Amino acid sequence: MDEGGAEREYRRRRNPPLGQFLLLGLILLNALIQTGRLSAGPDASRFRWEPPFIVGLLVLAVARIALEQFRAYTRVTTAGITAQGPLRSRTWAWSEVYDIRVEQAPRGSGRTTPQWLTYLYDFEGRRFLLWHLNDWQLDDPYAEVAELCLAAAPHRSLTWERRPDVEERIRQGAVRRRAWTWGACGGVVVFFLAFVVDIWRVVVGRPDHPFVLMLVVPLASGVVLSAVLQWFWSTRPPRSGVAQGPN
Questions:
Q1: Rounded distance, CA 15 to CA 139, Å?
Q2: Which of 34, 95, 144, 245 suits 231 as a labelling partner, its CA being 20 to 30 A distant?
Q3: d(CA 225, CA 188)
Q4: Average pLDDT over the chain, rounded to an integer
Q5: With contact defined as beta carbons under 8 Å apart, do 112 and 82 qualify?
Q6: Cβ contact 10:74 at 8 Å
Q7: pLDDT class for 187, splitting at 50, 70, 90?
Q8: Are 114 and 136 in contact (CB under 8 A)?
Q9: pTM of structure
Q10: Contact criterion met (CB below 8 Å) for 163 and 154
């Protein structure tokens, strides 16, 4: 990183907790064991979709974490910013950047995940994660972003001033993300309730419907809840809005 200049690059400086990989590994191992038992058990002729589905999700989760740690980076030059994610890369010229803001992560605690993340906003109000500009990889992400914006100012044809139309689009995007986050949480709650109901039906001898109860119902519940919350918060915005950047 070029201290005090626009040329800098942010890469992984701190490894994720080892326990995070161990937990995923244990869950993956258990799912593989359960898949083997079902394949060799008395119900071997009956296909069970749950173990392969869980194994697939865990493999994708482990692959994403590995790619995020060893492939992702953020590069800043006098021409603009490049954000290389786990799979795809995107570059913005400075004239396309509306703002850069440090915001609190939706998951809260910074013990297992970063608590503060940095996002780039374009003039359409869309936001994009800038990899490794967070409180895990930087001692003070707010100060780093403030210094970055100051160093980039001579290379922009615009100032960092706020525009009401872009701010409204950013607010709408924040409402939409908040609604879908709560909808996803609601879908998870419904999933566990449906899991209990499915077990109860098996215990009492009634036919179980795992596909409907544990997949269709939670997904439908999450979508409906997200749509309702997005409509409600669009008319009555939640008190906790978008965190503002340093400029």
A1: 15
A2: 245
A3: 12
A4: 81
A5: no
A6: yes
A7: very high
A8: yes
A9: 0.72
A10: no
